[in-house]
Amino acid sequence: MTRRHHLRMFRRLGTTAILLAARVQAQDDTNEIPQIKPPHAALPPTYWELHGTIIMMAGVVFLALVGFVIWALTRPRPPVVIPPAVAAREALAALPALASEGERLSRVSQIVRHYVQQAFDLPRVELNTTEFCQVVAAHPALGPELAAALAAFLQDSDRRKFSPAPAPANAVDAVNAVTRALGLIEQGETRREHLRVQTVAANRKPAA
Fold first, then answer.
1. Total number of domains constituting the chain
2. Cα dist. 118→159, 167, 188 in Å?
């Protein structure tokens, strides 16, 4: 080899060495750890994170309250029980004044019958006056005095309804019928109170 040829080879080797050194330096530069930035401040809690539990509890309580109000407004109400004596007196007071004498007498006797059936738990069946008086006389709760007074009133009302109407005495008969009916209701209430007192006294007696 000539000297010139050797010089070329040395130049090529030098150039190659320079390129390799540059590549190693570049790799060293790329492998450097980047500078870490300072951490961000912690994010504040959201509104739901702060108040979510309270909101959920309030929602449950509100739904329960709405459900209770709906139930209270829609539940079936127990029927209002009117005492038999009160219902009978109100029915007598509401009798139409312009009705005929026979209609008023018939209505008064029906009110008395209905009162006796309710107050003394008589059978709710349709009976004529004779049959009703027999049931009343055989019922021990009414007693003989009240049973006799009821029978006399109902039979007298039938005689007045079906007899030929006398002239001016009709209005007086209707007023007397209402008065007698009120008296029978008072007598019935007295009898019921007497029975109640007897029942309480019997329950208080010590067992033998």
1. 1
2. 25, 36, 11
One-letter amino acid at 165 equals A
Tokens 């005492």, residue located: 83
The pair of structure tokens assigned to 130 is 């004779």
Range of the domain at 189: 84-203
User: Is 88 strand, coil or helix?
Assistant: helix
Q: Between 168 and 91, where is the model more confident?
A: 91
For residue 140, being part of any structural domain is answered with: yes
Residue from 79, 92, 73, 77 nearest 177 by CA: 92
Nearest to 188 by CA among 153, 134, 149, 131: 149
Answer whether residue 37 is part of any domain: no
> Does any domain span residue 104?
yes
Residues 6+ apart with CB under 8 A from 195: 141
DSSP string over 162-199 = HSPPPSTTHHHHHHHHHHHHHHHHHHHHHHHHHHHHHH
- Phi/psi for 172 (5° steps) reads -65, -40
- Model pLDDT for residues 53-112, shown as the tens digit of each residue: 888 888 888 888 888 888 777 877 777 778 889 999 999 888 876 567 778 888 899 999
Residue 10 included in any domain: no
